[in-house]
Design a protein that fits this description.
Blueprint (H helix, E strand, L loop, with lengths): L13 E3 L9 H9 L1 H6 L5 E3 L6 H10 L4 E6 H9 L4 E9 L4 E5 L14 E4 L4 H12 L8 E4 L2 H9 L5 E5 H9 L3 E5 L7 E7 H6 L1 H20 L1 H12 L3 H8 L10 H16 L9 H5 L9
Parallel strand pairs: 1-2, 6-7, 6-8
Antiparallel strand pairs: 3-10, 4-10, 5-8, 5-9
Helix pairs in contact: 1-9, 1-10, 3-4, 4-12, 6-7, 9-10, 10-11
């Protein structure tokens, strides 16, 4: 993604970049703890604001409205939905791939397997990777979402509902899944071999066109965080554990679930196409897009 010189007078005074720590976004946690964003934007005299918007749909809405310029951790499904519905969003890199981090879980005395979920209440966020996982797991056992009561809740609420016995199962990720496990809950299935979720870095298209140098500044901070994780893995894990309020042992275990390489690949494109196909089949999306041509900036395939 070639840089372009823009006069200082044309620079925005503030760039708003979302901060999303959960479920286990180590590069973002390191970037904030080490001040890499502020350092990268200082030469441009640009101030950074980091609103904590965790909902993918809300991040896309904020990008479309110009309220944020970079969505640092954006679910692939949210990026596709936004673009298909006319939002000015471009993907400048991958954030993570983590099928093992997504789970369908039950309580200690809940159904023994996925087949046992028929007719049961399952809590979790709709229109997300976890929604896709639930549909894929049910399909593998000859069922569909119509065979269960899927209750739309965010992760914290879904965890609480499962632990309180108000639902029979929940779709969970990150420390929410760890809490349920430590309370005697069980994983019925993970996303491994069922889905291949790709989380991306999204930007407002206008911002990418007008300020490619500032986009590069962001990517340099992201790369610096990645380098720190490689060179100081124990310290990076401790930072993540502290942020997520989990033990270092749990952080070490969760780290094995994630691939944080930012360079997009043809496999990522294929995975995003699968996510788009799921949304069409689930009635969430009517208009499709060309993932590679419409959504992903060419430079995303060249990130080092």
């Amino acid at each position: 993604m070639p840089a372009q010189i823009v006069n200082a007078a044309d620079k925005p005074e503030v760039v708003r970049i979302t901060y999303v720590a959960s479920p286990f976004n180590v590069p973002s946690i390191v970037m904030r703890a080490k001040g890499y964003l502020e350092e990268a934007f200082k030469p441009y005299n640009v101030r950074i604001e980091s609103p904590e918007i965790t909902s993918g749909a809300q991040q896309v809405q904020a990008l479309a409205a110009g309220e944020i310029q970079i969505a640092s951790v954006l679910g692939g499904t949210s990026a596709i939905l936004g673009k298909a519905n006319g939002a000015d969003v471009k993907v400048i890199g991958a954030y993570s791939r983590s099928p093992k981090a997504f789970n369908v879980m039950t309580g200690a005395n809940g159904p023994a397997d996925i087949a046992g979920l028929k007719g049961k209440a399952i809590a979790g966020p709709k229109g997300t990777t976890l929604h896709q996982l639930l549909a894929a797991a049910l399909a593998k056992h000859g069922m569909s979402l119509a065979d269960v009561e899927h209750v739309n809740m965010d992760l914290g609420a879904a965890r609480a509902a499962l632990l309180a016995g108000k639902v029979d199962a929940a779709t969970l990720a990150g420390n929410n899944a760890l809490v349920v496990e430590k309370s005697g809950g069980r994983i019925l299935v993970t996303g491994e071999n069922l889905i291949a979720p790709t989380t991306v870095i999204g930007v407002r298209g206008e911002f990418l066109r007008d300020h490619p140098d500032l986009v590069q500044a962001y990517l340099s901070a992201h790369r610096k965080a990645m380098d720190f994780m490689a060179e100081h893995p124990d310290e990076a894990l401790q930072l993540a554990a502290d942020e997520q309020k989990i033990s270092i042992e749990d952080a070490r275990r969760m780290m094995t679930f994630y691939d944080f390489s930012p360079r997009m690949s043809d496999r990522d494109v294929a995975n995003l196409n699968d996510e788009q196909a799921f949304m069409v089949s689930a009635g969430m999306l009517k208009k499709t897009i060309d993932i590679k041509a419409d959504l992903i900036a060419p430079g995303a395939f060249e990130i080092k």
